[in-house]
Amino acid sequence: MRLEEAMRRWMTMVLMVLTLGSGVNALGCATTPGRAAADALVPISDEVAMGRQMADELEKELTMHPDAEVQRYVQQLGEQVVRAVPNRPSGLAFRFKVVDDPSQINAFAIPGGGIYVYSGLLRAMESESELVAVLSHEVAHVTRRHIAQRLVTAYGIDALAQLALGQNPGLLGQLVGAVAAQGFMLKYSRDHERDADEWGLRYMVRMDYDPHGFVTFFRKLEGDGPQLPEFLLTHPHADDRIERIEALIAQLPQTPTRDGREAFQAMKPKF
């Protein structure tokens, strides 16, 4: 093996170890080695290129909600979340779409900034603060580069580079098929979920929405019946995360109270 190739593979392995090292420090603040590795391994432009290909194929497989007002409502709330993100990575292409499937209580993000919310999830909500909590959480998975980290860990850099160039239809089909069949693309680590919770909470507060929307929605889903809905199955450790979010809310110097219930209830019959 040539020295250059050996060095490249060695550096790749070092960066992948860093990718797996994302965590939370003793003060409860998210650390960023995983994001630094993702930034080095997967340029934003490559992630956006992957996402565009995925979105094109996904929207052939999924039934998008036919009501333009519903799509606009979720898109506008999502755009407000994005504007609340401090130090947002440049080049991400956020789009927020509603999938018309009342049986699916779920939401997911794809590479580059595509966020999909199922109508079943919207129907389970009561206020904008609950919807903003979910959107903020999914946006944080993108802005904190969790998707890039998980993709590198699962498939490797070479496969992702080929995917970004449109040269890996097999992997594209695998990812699209997983979403179409199960309502999500990748399961995140516990640290990724905690990080997305913490940063999603920050985004909500910057938007002046009541962060208790996160807590009320998760508690409602937990008590919804003997079978957990998809959102809790794909976003695990709800009890632990609710306690942690409540502790973070308690530390806020001032807690917003806006929940947007009236506006949400006006839209709900259309979901």
TrEMBL record:
Pfam families per record: Peptidase_M48 (PF01435)
Example GO biological process: proteolysis involved in protein catabolic process
GO CC terms in record: membrane
Cofactor binding notes: Binds 1 zinc ion per subunit.
Keywords: Hydrolase, Metal-binding, Metalloprotease, Protease, Zinc
Domain of life: Bacteria
Keyword Hydrolase attached: yes
Boundaries of every Peptidase M48 domain copy: 71-247
Cofactor(s) essential for the protein: Zn(2+)
Classification via InterPro entries: Mito/Outer_Membr_Metalloprot, Peptidase_M48
One example GO MF annotation: metal ion binding
Keyword Cell inner membrane: no
Family named by the database record: Belongs to the peptidase M48 family.
The protein, known as: M48 family metalloprotease
Organism expressing this protein natively: Lujinxingia vulgaris
